[in-house]
Amino acid sequence: MRIVIVDDSSFSIAFIREILEKNGFDVVGEAGTLEEVKAVVKEKKPNLVTMDMTLPGTDGLECTRAIHDIDKNIKVVVVSSMMDDEIVKKAKKNKVSAYIQKPVDADELVTVINRVMASDELYHFLDENYFIVFKEALMDSFNKMTKTIPAYKQEYCSNNEFESDGITIIIGISGKFSGRMLLDLSKETAKQLTAAIFRREPKNDDEMMAVLGEFANIVSGNACSMLNKKNKALGLRVAPPSILHGDSVLISAPGLNTTAAIAETGFGELLLNVGFQRGEEKWI
Amino acid sequence: MDIKYANPFIESFTTIMPQLGYSQIESGNVSEKEQELVHTGVNIIVGIVGGAKGNVVYSMSLETAKKIASTMMMGMPVEELDEMSKSALSELANMLTAGAATAFYNMGIKVDISTPTLLHGENISIKMSSNQVLCVQLLADDIAIETNVAFE
To answer: Lowest CB count within 10 Å: A120, A136, A147, A171, which one?
Structure first.
């Protein structure tokens, strides 16, 4: 793991460097001014930067913003002698991942860095796996409940508003990261799907909605269990389903990157749309 | 459903709206609805998991939605519900629900919240997970947000 140390005191730099190197981290550079920070981050591409708050001609927050302008994935851990509610709040606003106070305690620094990086890796793990798992859970639920297997015909990143086909089922998800699953289908598809699950026509819309809700609950519940089994730190849990229908309903999830796929089922098309948010780091 | 589940949402609204520049905050009676909710305008859904499991739906008219978005964007005029406005409204739903989560925590119930989903259109029927839905009319100056809460 590549780390850059930002501090205006050569003593502090040497002290932090010693702790980090002793614990197997690779210190790839150091900086004491805004210009130096920009230069070293561009050149060395660190995974993480330790950041002092008081720096000549600049401050830790300005430097943090400059780092994230270069690469928003770089983690910044503030290491400063100043620590109060006000400054910590500002640091959070500026997307600092953690805040520790000088004098630096070696164990604390190492623990905080490991935790920050673990959270990053965990998100990457989720990001790489969630859609595969949700597709599998949907297929599996179709197979078990209707004895048919859908085929996915399109998969795409979906960040734009789209119009509902008729009925939308939304399941909120939370845990280490929060997100949501959405299923969207036409009324006709919903009727046929419900009939196949029930092995008879649904008596009324209420009954159909109840079946759709339970179906979505099973798909999302199974998917989250599978993800939790792969990595128990995710701790994902699902909220109960909400079912919506109306006239030309437009759906969006601003700020959330979602993945969508259209499942070609024996009953018509069904849209599977899932997304998780990176979210704020949990602070100590 | 126990009326106490509505209180965290009222508390959160009362705390957060003044921070956005609203001064006159009012909360109407909490009523219980048994039928499906039908609404024209903007709805934002947030899921809740943990010590209490359910959903909250914030419903408002399109005009109200635009007014709120404008206020949240420092008074920038909002003619139509564009990407930026929807983002502001989602952020509001997120803040209000996170505030409610804190209030739940103070009641000894630990909950986590999902990301918000925004839906707008005409005659949107919403079937929530529980047949009993607590509905609170929340007012901040000239805007009204209907907050519908359902827990299992």
So the answer is: A147
